[in-house]
Amino acid sequence: MTAPTTTKTQAALNAFVKETGGWVAGQLEACTRCGLCAEACHFYQALGNPEYAPVWKMEPLRRAYQQRFTISGRIKSALGLAKPVTDEDLGRWSVLVYEACTVCNKCALVCPMGIQIGTLIHDVRTAMSAAGVVPADLHAAALKQVEIGSPLGVTAEAWRERLDWIAEEWEVEIPVDKPGAETLAVFTSIEVMKFPENLAAVATILNKAGENWTVASQGREAVNFGVFESDPELTKVFLGRVFDAAKALGVKRIMIAECGHSYEAFRWTAPNIMDVPPGIEITHIVRVMYELMKAGRIKLKAGAYADAPVTFHDSCKIQRRGGLIKEPRALLKVLAGDSFREMDPCREQSQCCGGGGGVISIKEADPLRFAVFGMKIDQMKANGAQTVCMVCSNCRLQFTEGVAQYNSGVKVRGLTDMVAKALE
Ligand code: SF4
Ligand code: SF4
Protein backbone atom coordinates (compact mmCIF):
# COMPACT_ATOMS: atom_id res chain seq x y z
CA MET A 1 0.00 0.00 0.00
CA THR A 2 1.29 3.46 -0.85
CA ALA A 3 2.15 5.57 2.23
CA PRO A 4 -0.01 8.71 2.57
CA THR A 5 1.66 12.00 1.66
CA THR A 6 1.98 14.10 4.81
CA THR A 7 2.43 17.86 5.07
CA LYS A 8 6.14 17.30 5.69
CA THR A 9 6.72 15.09 2.68
CA GLN A 10 4.57 17.39 0.54
CA ALA A 11 6.72 20.39 1.55
CA ALA A 12 9.87 18.41 0.76
CA LEU A 13 8.47 17.24 -2.59
CA ASN A 14 7.42 20.76 -3.53
CA ALA A 15 10.93 21.98 -2.74
CA PHE A 16 12.50 19.11 -4.72
CA VAL A 17 10.32 19.99 -7.69
CA LYS A 18 11.13 23.71 -7.35
CA GLU A 19 14.86 22.92 -7.29
CA THR A 20 14.59 20.68 -10.36
CA GLY A 21 15.34 22.98 -13.26
CA GLY A 22 16.99 21.96 -16.53
CA TRP A 23 20.45 21.94 -15.01
CA VAL A 24 19.48 19.61 -12.15
CA ALA A 25 17.60 17.34 -14.56
CA GLY A 26 20.67 17.13 -16.81
CA GLN A 27 22.88 16.26 -13.85
CA LEU A 28 20.52 13.54 -12.61
CA GLU A 29 20.11 12.08 -16.11
CA ALA A 30 23.89 11.99 -16.56
CA CYS A 31 24.50 9.89 -13.45
CA THR A 32 25.29 6.31 -14.48
CA ARG A 33 25.21 5.13 -10.83
CA CYS A 34 28.72 3.78 -11.23
CA GLY A 35 29.45 4.44 -7.55
CA LEU A 36 32.94 5.85 -8.17
CA CYS A 37 32.12 8.90 -6.04
CA ALA A 38 31.92 6.71 -2.91
CA GLU A 39 35.69 6.27 -2.70
CA ALA A 40 36.17 10.05 -2.66
CA CYS A 41 33.91 10.62 0.34
CA HIS A 42 35.73 10.70 3.68
CA PHE A 43 32.59 9.49 5.50
CA TYR A 44 32.36 6.42 3.29
CA GLN A 45 36.13 5.87 3.41
CA ALA A 46 36.30 6.09 7.20
CA LEU A 47 33.18 4.10 8.05
CA GLY A 48 32.44 1.95 4.99
CA ASN A 49 28.68 2.52 5.28
CA PRO A 50 27.17 2.33 1.75
CA GLU A 51 24.55 4.92 2.78
CA TYR A 52 27.40 7.46 2.96
CA ALA A 53 28.06 7.13 -0.78
CA PRO A 54 27.48 10.55 -2.38
CA VAL A 55 25.18 9.10 -5.04
CA TRP A 56 22.92 7.70 -2.31
CA LYS A 57 22.75 11.08 -0.56
CA MET A 58 21.21 12.52 -3.76
CA GLU A 59 18.66 9.70 -3.98
CA PRO A 60 15.53 11.59 -2.74
CA LEU A 61 16.11 14.26 -5.38
CA ARG A 62 16.48 11.58 -8.07
CA ARG A 63 13.28 9.82 -6.94
CA ALA A 64 11.28 13.04 -6.89
CA TYR A 65 12.65 13.97 -10.34
CA GLN A 66 11.81 10.60 -11.84
CA GLN A 67 8.31 10.50 -10.42
CA ARG A 68 7.41 14.04 -11.45
CA PHE A 69 9.35 14.59 -14.68
CA THR A 70 9.92 11.28 -16.50
CA ILE A 71 7.25 9.37 -18.42
CA SER A 72 8.15 6.01 -16.90
CA GLY A 73 8.20 7.54 -13.42
CA ARG A 74 4.81 9.16 -13.93
CA ILE A 75 3.29 5.92 -15.18
CA LYS A 76 4.73 4.02 -12.22
CA SER A 77 3.41 6.68 -9.84
CA ALA A 78 -0.05 6.53 -11.44
CA LEU A 79 -0.06 2.74 -11.02
CA GLY A 80 1.16 3.02 -7.41
CA LEU A 81 4.39 1.20 -8.34
CA ALA A 82 6.81 4.05 -7.55
CA LYS A 83 8.57 4.21 -4.20
CA PRO A 84 7.22 7.35 -2.57
CA VAL A 85 9.29 9.61 -0.31
CA THR A 86 7.98 9.17 3.25
CA ASP A 87 8.49 11.02 6.55
CA GLU A 88 10.75 8.16 7.61
CA ASP A 89 12.87 8.69 4.48
CA LEU A 90 13.16 12.39 5.25
CA GLY A 91 14.44 11.63 8.75
CA ARG A 92 16.96 9.13 7.39
CA TRP A 93 18.27 11.40 4.67
CA SER A 94 18.37 14.37 7.01
CA VAL A 95 21.05 12.50 8.97
CA LEU A 96 22.88 11.57 5.75
CA VAL A 97 22.97 15.05 4.21
CA TYR A 98 23.48 17.14 7.34
CA GLU A 99 25.57 14.89 9.60
CA ALA A 100 27.43 12.67 7.13
CA CYS A 101 28.17 15.29 4.47
CA THR A 102 30.31 18.41 4.79
CA VAL A 103 29.39 19.52 1.24
CA CYS A 104 33.12 19.43 0.53
CA ASN A 105 32.44 18.48 -3.12
CA LYS A 106 35.49 16.24 -3.37
CA CYS A 107 33.19 13.60 -4.84
CA ALA A 108 32.61 15.85 -7.86
CA LEU A 109 36.33 15.68 -8.68
CA VAL A 110 36.16 11.95 -9.35
CA CYS A 111 32.76 11.72 -11.05
CA PRO A 112 33.40 10.73 -14.69
CA MET A 113 30.20 12.52 -15.69
CA GLY A 114 31.25 15.81 -14.08
CA ILE A 115 28.23 15.87 -11.78
CA GLN A 116 28.32 18.63 -9.17
CA ILE A 117 27.26 16.35 -6.35
CA GLY A 118 27.76 18.93 -3.58
CA THR A 119 25.32 21.29 -5.27
CA LEU A 120 22.72 18.53 -5.60
CA ILE A 121 23.16 17.60 -1.94
CA HIS A 122 22.54 21.26 -1.12
CA ASP A 123 19.26 20.89 -3.04
CA VAL A 124 18.35 17.88 -0.89
CA ARG A 125 19.12 20.00 2.18
CA THR A 126 16.84 22.73 0.81
CA ALA A 127 13.97 20.24 0.65
CA MET A 128 14.74 19.06 4.20
CA SER A 129 14.73 22.67 5.35
CA ALA A 130 11.36 23.30 3.64
CA ALA A 131 9.96 20.23 5.42
CA GLY A 132 11.43 21.30 8.77
CA VAL A 133 13.61 18.19 9.00
CA VAL A 134 16.86 19.86 10.05
CA PRO A 135 19.04 18.73 12.99
CA ALA A 136 17.90 20.70 16.04
CA ASP A 137 21.36 22.13 16.89
CA LEU A 138 21.89 23.45 13.38
CA HIS A 139 18.45 25.01 13.17
CA ALA A 140 18.82 26.56 16.64
CA ALA A 141 22.09 28.19 15.51
CA ALA A 142 20.35 29.54 12.38
CA LEU A 143 17.56 31.03 14.54
CA LYS A 144 20.13 32.64 16.85
CA GLN A 145 21.74 34.20 13.80
CA VAL A 146 18.32 35.58 12.79
CA GLU A 147 17.46 36.96 16.22
CA ILE A 148 20.80 37.91 17.74
CA GLY A 149 23.00 38.27 14.67
CA SER A 150 25.35 35.44 15.62
CA PRO A 151 24.91 31.63 15.62
CA LEU A 152 26.86 31.50 18.88
CA GLY A 153 24.55 34.10 20.43
CA VAL A 154 27.13 36.92 20.52
CA THR A 155 25.05 40.09 20.94
CA ALA A 156 26.12 43.43 19.46
CA GLU A 157 27.19 44.58 22.94
CA ALA A 158 29.17 41.39 23.65
CA TRP A 159 30.84 41.68 20.23
CA ARG A 160 31.88 45.26 20.92
CA GLU A 161 33.18 44.38 24.40
CA ARG A 162 35.13 41.49 22.94
CA LEU A 163 36.72 43.75 20.33
CA ASP A 164 37.68 46.29 22.99
CA TRP A 165 39.23 43.49 25.04
CA ILE A 166 41.18 42.12 22.04
CA ALA A 167 42.43 45.62 21.18
CA GLU A 168 43.64 46.12 24.75
CA GLU A 169 45.08 42.64 25.25
CA TRP A 170 47.06 42.59 21.97
CA GLU A 171 47.68 46.36 21.95
CA VAL A 172 46.29 46.74 18.48
CA GLU A 173 43.91 49.25 16.92
CA ILE A 174 40.66 47.80 15.52
CA PRO A 175 38.67 50.46 13.61
CA VAL A 176 34.89 50.04 13.96
CA ASP A 177 32.40 51.57 11.45
CA LYS A 178 35.14 53.79 10.05
CA PRO A 179 33.72 56.01 7.30
CA GLY A 180 35.84 56.11 4.14
CA ALA A 181 37.51 52.77 4.83
CA GLU A 182 38.43 50.79 1.72
CA THR A 183 38.40 47.28 3.18
CA LEU A 184 35.66 45.80 5.34
CA ALA A 185 37.01 42.85 7.36
CA VAL A 186 34.37 40.32 8.36
CA PHE A 187 34.92 37.65 11.01
CA THR A 188 32.92 34.69 12.25
CA SER A 189 31.73 34.28 15.82
CA ILE A 190 34.14 31.31 16.11
CA GLU A 191 37.05 33.67 15.46
CA VAL A 192 35.74 36.36 17.80
CA MET A 193 34.98 34.02 20.70
CA LYS A 194 37.28 31.00 20.31
CA PHE A 195 40.28 32.35 18.40
CA PRO A 196 40.57 36.04 19.41
CA GLU A 197 44.27 36.01 18.50
CA ASN A 198 43.13 35.63 14.90
CA LEU A 199 41.26 38.93 15.01
CA ALA A 200 44.28 40.56 16.64
CA ALA A 201 46.52 39.05 13.96
CA VAL A 202 44.40 40.42 11.09
CA ALA A 203 44.40 43.87 12.72
CA THR A 204 48.18 43.76 13.27
CA ILE A 205 48.86 42.80 9.65
CA LEU A 206 46.48 45.33 8.08
CA ASN A 207 47.73 48.14 10.35
CA LYS A 208 51.36 47.27 9.62
CA ALA A 209 50.63 47.40 5.88
CA GLY A 210 48.92 50.78 6.23
CA GLU A 211 45.62 49.41 4.97
CA ASN A 212 42.57 51.68 5.31
CA TRP A 213 40.18 49.16 6.86
CA THR A 214 37.33 48.69 9.29
CA VAL A 215 34.97 46.20 10.86
CA ALA A 216 31.21 46.91 10.81
CA SER A 217 28.88 46.54 13.75
CA GLN A 218 25.87 46.04 11.46
CA GLY A 219 27.62 43.46 9.29
CA ARG A 220 29.68 41.74 11.92
CA GLU A 221 28.97 38.06 11.22
CA ALA A 222 30.65 36.33 8.29
CA VAL A 223 29.31 32.83 8.75
CA ASN A 224 25.97 31.91 7.19
CA PHE A 225 23.80 29.26 8.80
CA GLY A 226 21.28 29.78 6.01
CA VAL A 227 23.86 28.15 3.72
CA PHE A 228 24.42 25.26 6.12
CA GLU A 229 20.69 24.67 6.46
CA SER A 230 20.34 25.43 2.73
CA ASP A 231 17.47 27.84 3.24
CA PRO A 232 17.80 30.40 0.40
CA GLU A 233 15.77 33.09 2.21
CA LEU A 234 17.87 32.92 5.38
CA THR A 235 21.01 32.83 3.27
CA LYS A 236 19.99 36.09 1.59
CA VAL A 237 19.14 37.77 4.90
CA PHE A 238 22.56 37.00 6.40
CA LEU A 239 24.49 37.98 3.26
CA GLY A 240 22.39 41.13 2.98
CA ARG A 241 23.42 42.35 6.44
CA VAL A 242 27.08 42.45 5.40
CA PHE A 243 26.39 43.87 1.93
CA ASP A 244 24.24 46.62 3.48
CA ALA A 245 27.04 47.51 5.89
CA ALA A 246 29.56 47.54 3.02
CA LYS A 247 27.31 49.86 1.00
CA ALA A 248 26.69 52.18 3.96
CA LEU A 249 30.42 52.47 4.63
CA GLY A 250 31.27 52.80 0.93
CA VAL A 251 34.05 50.19 1.03
CA LYS A 252 35.73 48.86 -2.10
CA ARG A 253 36.16 45.32 -0.89
CA ILE A 254 34.90 42.81 1.64
CA MET A 255 37.68 40.72 3.11
CA ILE A 256 36.63 37.45 4.69
CA ALA A 257 38.95 36.48 7.50
CA GLU A 258 39.58 32.80 8.27
CA CYS A 259 36.35 31.12 7.10
CA GLY A 260 35.93 28.98 4.01
CA HIS A 261 32.14 28.64 3.88
CA SER A 262 31.75 32.41 4.25
CA TYR A 263 34.18 32.99 1.40
CA GLU A 264 32.15 30.67 -0.82
CA ALA A 265 28.86 32.29 0.24
CA PHE A 266 29.98 35.83 -0.56
CA ARG A 267 31.89 34.99 -3.75
CA TRP A 268 29.66 32.43 -5.44
CA THR A 269 26.37 31.89 -3.63
CA ALA A 270 25.43 35.57 -3.36
CA PRO A 271 25.65 36.46 -7.10
CA ASN A 272 23.52 33.41 -7.90
CA ILE A 273 20.65 34.15 -5.54
CA MET A 274 20.44 37.92 -5.00
CA ASP A 275 21.40 41.36 -6.23
CA VAL A 276 24.86 42.11 -4.93
CA PRO A 277 26.14 45.68 -4.72
CA PRO A 278 28.27 46.38 -7.82
CA GLY A 279 31.95 47.24 -7.62
CA ILE A 280 32.73 45.52 -4.33
CA GLU A 281 35.49 42.94 -4.54
CA ILE A 282 35.26 39.82 -2.37
CA THR A 283 38.60 38.59 -1.11
CA HIS A 284 40.10 36.38 1.59
CA ILE A 285 42.77 37.13 4.19
CA VAL A 286 45.20 34.60 2.69
CA ARG A 287 45.13 36.36 -0.67
CA VAL A 288 45.50 39.74 1.03
CA MET A 289 48.52 38.56 3.06
CA TYR A 290 50.11 37.11 -0.08
CA GLU A 291 49.57 40.32 -2.04
CA LEU A 292 50.88 42.49 0.81
CA MET A 293 54.02 40.33 0.99
CA LYS A 294 54.53 40.42 -2.79
CA ALA A 295 54.12 44.20 -2.80
CA GLY A 296 56.64 44.56 0.03
CA ARG A 297 54.04 46.12 2.31
CA ILE A 298 54.70 43.49 4.97
CA LYS A 299 57.97 41.66 5.56
CA LEU A 300 58.19 38.26 7.21
CA LYS A 301 61.07 36.85 9.22
CA ALA A 302 62.43 34.11 6.99
CA GLY A 303 62.55 30.74 8.76
CA ALA A 304 60.51 31.94 11.76
CA TYR A 305 58.90 28.45 11.94
CA ALA A 306 61.68 26.39 10.38
CA ASP A 307 62.73 24.62 13.59
CA ALA A 308 60.15 21.81 13.31
CA PRO A 309 58.02 20.27 10.52
CA VAL A 310 54.99 22.35 9.56
CA THR A 311 52.12 21.21 7.36
CA PHE A 312 49.13 22.98 5.79
CA HIS A 313 45.53 21.81 5.61
CA ASP A 314 43.82 22.87 2.36
CA SER A 315 40.24 23.89 3.09
CA CYS A 316 37.50 22.73 0.71
CA LYS A 317 36.04 26.16 0.02
CA ILE A 318 39.20 28.28 0.01
CA GLN A 319 41.59 25.96 -1.79
CA ARG A 320 39.55 23.33 -3.69
CA ARG A 321 36.71 25.71 -4.62
CA GLY A 322 38.49 29.04 -4.32
CA GLY A 323 41.80 28.08 -5.92
CA LEU A 324 43.88 29.94 -3.32
CA ILE A 325 46.51 27.20 -3.36
CA LYS A 326 49.76 28.99 -4.15
CA GLU A 327 49.17 31.84 -1.68
CA PRO A 328 49.51 29.96 1.64
CA ARG A 329 52.44 27.99 0.23
CA ALA A 330 54.28 31.15 -0.77
CA LEU A 331 53.86 32.48 2.78
CA LEU A 332 54.91 29.15 4.32
CA LYS A 333 57.94 28.91 2.04
CA VAL A 334 59.24 32.06 3.71
CA LEU A 335 58.09 31.17 7.22
CA ALA A 336 59.07 27.50 7.35
CA GLY A 337 61.47 26.96 4.42
CA ASP A 338 62.42 23.30 4.06
CA SER A 339 60.45 22.41 7.20
CA PHE A 340 57.21 22.77 5.23
CA ARG A 341 55.70 19.38 4.36
CA GLU A 342 52.66 18.64 2.24
CA MET A 343 49.93 16.33 3.44
CA ASP A 344 48.90 13.50 1.16
CA PRO A 345 46.41 14.20 -0.38
CA CYS A 346 46.73 17.96 -0.63
CA ARG A 347 45.86 21.03 -2.71
CA GLU A 348 42.54 20.61 -4.58
CA GLN A 349 42.59 16.87 -3.74
CA SER A 350 42.82 17.55 0.01
CA GLN A 351 40.56 15.54 2.27
CA CYS A 352 37.99 17.59 4.20
CA CYS A 353 38.62 17.93 7.95
CA GLY A 354 35.12 16.53 8.65
CA GLY A 355 33.71 19.55 10.46
CA GLY A 356 32.51 21.70 7.55
CA GLY A 357 29.04 22.29 6.13
CA GLY A 358 27.59 22.85 9.61
CA VAL A 359 28.52 19.33 10.81
CA ILE A 360 30.59 20.68 13.70
CA SER A 361 27.53 22.44 15.13
CA ILE A 362 25.50 19.19 15.42
CA LYS A 363 26.20 17.32 18.65
CA GLU A 364 24.82 14.01 17.30
CA ALA A 365 27.40 14.16 14.50
CA ASP A 366 30.39 14.19 16.88
CA PRO A 367 31.16 10.45 16.59
CA LEU A 368 31.08 10.73 12.80
CA ARG A 369 33.26 13.82 12.52
CA PHE A 370 35.83 12.41 14.93
CA ALA A 371 35.85 9.10 13.06
CA VAL A 372 36.67 10.81 9.76
CA PHE A 373 39.25 13.03 11.47
CA GLY A 374 41.24 9.87 12.17
CA MET A 375 42.28 10.00 8.51
CA LYS A 376 43.76 13.50 8.99
CA ILE A 377 45.64 12.17 12.03
CA ASP A 378 47.12 9.44 9.80
CA GLN A 379 48.12 12.01 7.18
CA MET A 380 49.92 14.12 9.78
CA LYS A 381 51.64 11.05 11.24
CA ALA A 382 52.81 10.15 7.75
CA ASN A 383 54.45 13.51 7.07
CA GLY A 384 55.77 13.95 10.62
CA ALA A 385 54.23 17.41 11.12
CA GLN A 386 54.52 18.94 14.56
CA THR A 387 52.43 21.96 13.58
CA VAL A 388 49.43 22.08 11.27
CA CYS A 389 48.05 25.39 10.08
CA MET A 390 45.11 26.46 7.96
CA VAL A 391 43.19 29.57 6.89
CA CYS A 392 39.71 28.52 8.02
CA SER A 393 38.59 28.80 11.65
CA ASN A 394 35.94 26.14 11.17
CA CYS A 395 38.66 23.69 10.09
CA ARG A 396 40.83 24.98 12.91
CA LEU A 397 38.14 24.21 15.48
CA GLN A 398 37.71 20.71 14.04
CA PHE A 399 41.49 20.16 14.09
CA THR A 400 41.78 21.51 17.66
CA GLU A 401 39.06 19.18 18.92
CA GLY A 402 40.18 16.27 16.73
CA VAL A 403 43.81 16.47 17.83
CA ALA A 404 42.63 16.47 21.48
CA GLN A 405 40.30 13.53 20.81
CA TYR A 406 43.18 11.45 19.42
CA ASN A 407 45.73 12.69 22.00
CA SER A 408 47.97 13.80 19.17
CA GLY A 409 50.68 16.27 20.09
CA VAL A 410 50.36 18.24 16.83
CA LYS A 411 50.00 21.97 17.41
CA VAL A 412 47.08 23.58 15.54
CA ARG A 413 47.48 27.18 14.34
CA GLY A 414 45.87 29.74 12.10
CA LEU A 415 48.24 30.84 9.33
CA THR A 416 47.22 34.48 9.84
CA ASP A 417 48.34 34.34 13.47
CA MET A 418 51.65 32.79 12.39
CA VAL A 419 52.18 35.57 9.84
CA ALA A 420 51.34 38.30 12.38
CA LYS A 421 53.85 36.88 14.87
CA ALA A 422 56.56 36.72 12.21
CA LEU A 423 56.23 40.31 10.98
CA GLU A 424 59.50 42.21 10.89
S1 SF4 B 1 30.57 9.01 -9.78
FE1 SF4 B 1 29.11 10.41 -10.81
S2 SF4 B 1 28.10 9.08 -12.31
FE2 SF4 B 1 29.08 7.70 -10.82
S3 SF4 B 1 27.48 7.33 -9.25
FE3 SF4 B 1 28.70 9.06 -8.53
S4 SF4 B 1 27.53 10.85 -9.27
FE4 SF4 B 1 26.79 9.10 -10.46
S1 SF4 C 1 30.31 16.55 -0.69
FE1 SF4 C 1 32.06 15.66 0.47
S2 SF4 C 1 31.10 14.84 2.33
FE2 SF4 C 1 29.42 15.21 0.88
S3 SF4 C 1 29.14 13.28 -0.22
FE3 SF4 C 1 30.61 14.46 -1.44
S4 SF4 C 1 32.66 13.81 -0.68
FE4 SF4 C 1 31.13 13.15 0.85
* Overall tally of structural domains: 3
Give the helix/strand class: alpha/beta
CATH topology of the largest domain: Glutathione S-transferase Yfyf (Class Pi), Chain A, domain 2
Envelope shape: globular
Total DSSP E strands: 8
Rg on CA atoms, Å: 22 Å
Give the C-level CATH assignment of the largest domain.
Mainly Alpha
Low-confidence stretches are none
Written account of the structure:
- The protein folds into three domains: 7-133, Fumarate Reductase Iron-sulfur Protein, Chain B, domain 2 (Orthogonal Bundle), CATH 1.10.1060; 139-294, Glutathione S-transferase Yfyf (Class Pi), Chain A, domain 2 (Up-down Bundle), CATH 1.20.1050; 310-421.
- It is built from 22 helices and eight strands.
- The strands form two sheets. It has a four-stranded parallel β-sheet with strand order 2-1-3-4. Strands 6-5-7-8 form a four-stranded parallel β-sheet, sandwiched between helices.
- The longest helix has 18 residues, at 232-249.
- α15 (232-249) crosses α16 and α20 packs across α21.
- The chain has helices at 7-19, 22-30, 42-47, 54-57, 59-69, 71-78, 87-99, 106-110, 117-131, 136-147, 156-169, 189-194, 196-208, 225-229, 232-249, 260-273, 285-294, 316-320, 326-336, 366-383, 393-405, 415-421, and strands at 183-186, 213-214, 253-256, 281-284, 310-312, 340-341, 387-390, 411-414.
- With 424 residues, the chain is of the alpha/beta class.
- The structure holds iron/sulfur cluster (SF4) (2 copies).
- Residues 31-37, 54-55, 111, 113, 115, 117 line the site of one iron/sulfur cluster.
